[in-house]
Amino acid sequence: MYTDASAGAGKRIAYQRRLARLTQQELARTAGVALGTARKIERGERGVGEGVSDAIAAALGIDVACLLPGRDRADDRVHRAMPELSAVLATYDMPEDGPTRPLSQLREAVAEVVTWRLAAQYVHISRQVPGLLAELGRAFHGAPTKCRADTAELLVAAYRAADAVAYKYGAYDLSARLIDLMRWAAAQSENPLLEAAAAYTRTEMYFAAGAHAIGLRALERALDVLPRRPVCPVAVATRGALHMRAAVIAARAGEEGVAFAHAAEARSLAARVPEATYQGTGFGPATMRMHELSVAVSLGDGFVRRALDAIGSWAPPNGLAAERRSGFYIELARAQLWSGQPDQAFASLRTARRIAPQHTREHMWVREDAATLRRLKRSDAESLSKFAEWCRAGE
Fold first, then answer.
1. Are 183 and 195 in contact (CB under 8 A)?
2. Is residue 6 part of a domain?
3. Are residues 344 and 383 in the same domain?
4. pLDDT of residue 3
5. What is the CATH number of the domain that holds 64?
6. Straight-line distance from the first to the last Cα atom of the chain, in angstroms, rounded to the nearest whole number
7. Residue 375 has pLDDT above 90, yes or no
8. Mean pLDDT along residues 250-274
């Protein structure tokens, strides 16, 4: 679809292409568009449809939001997909007829969507996941009962990717529905570790509602059904991730001792596995170190300074998921702001934006902290005002 909203995209594409040190021919070949088309787009003689902009962004290795004009353009693309996603969920047990790819190809498609979730590429997910969920539904219900477990595992991952979009963009009712379906699919998979992953994701609902004590109890119930002394790395990481999230929500509930106890358990388990993504959740020593800051920020002012001192100049490795790394800098900015370091806080927010712009822009804390920074530094550089406008600070 091309609209007037794509006006000016050519200049942005040309700028990003030069930053990537690509010729027009190299970009066209990598993106799969004709060289003449690429030239006309950059000259502003041709509009850019959503599919082409996605392909060009992928070829440049950047977030598609970098190519989109207007402060609401990325939001518009995500919200346009919500009705289609809702319709697919309404027919999860009676999917409409249509083509269904072999399981191996569906597995590849789901892996791509999971990669987008970890990279905070919500626009990509919103375009692809409704059709993928419909196809997975057909595959699940069309298979013999004894052969459904593998497809159910794919459904869990796809529902979680869709939930990432719904939750980040404030569609909490839709998010709750997706989490219910994620739990249903996890039960069909006959994999208790996937059911634990669903419990991990379900905590979003308690964060959104401010029901931290209830969320803590739900996580502790999920921990009770897992082996207390896991051996395989996936089981270790699954249990560790639940403890990690329990530490944060306990801190939000004001349960300092409980938060530290869960953090200690998570730290011990993180030391036993390499940093990696396990069943769609990052876990390991670096992820745990980032969550130490999350716990401190959740507990409040009295713990923030110690957390900042412990972090020092440490930065999360580039190999970690973009969404996770941007979240670290968002929380770091809040800690710095509370500690009377507004310049450092703004620098951290800008780093979060560079890493994962869609995630940063939709984060409530970013809006709150940008608004606070603008009040504190009214005469500061124009860049702060532009940043505050970009993230809709104060809304």
1. yes
2. yes
3. yes
4. 41
5. 1.10.260.40
6. 29
7. no
8. 97
Q: Which of 195, 214, 308 is nearest to 253 (CA)?
A: 214
Q: Which two tokens stand for residue 26?
A: 């190299």
Residue 207's alpha-carbon distances to 68, 105, 224, 281, in angstroms, are 31, 35, 21, 18
Structural domain including 15 reads 1-69
Its pTM stands at 0.85
Tens digit of pLDDT for each residue in 316-352? 999 999 999 999 999 999 999 999 999 999 999 999 9
Same domain, 296 and 229: yes
What is the rounded distance in angstroms from the CA atom of residue 132 to the CA atom of residue 386? 37
84-99: per-residue pLDDT in tens? 999 999 999 999 899 9
Same domain, 15 and 51: yes
39-72 as b/e: b if 16+ CB within 10 A: bebbeeebbbebebbbbbbebbebbbbbbbeeee
User: What is the domain count for the chain?
Assistant: 4
* Listed residues 190, 223, 253: the one ending a domain: 190
pLDDT at 35 > cutoff 80: yes
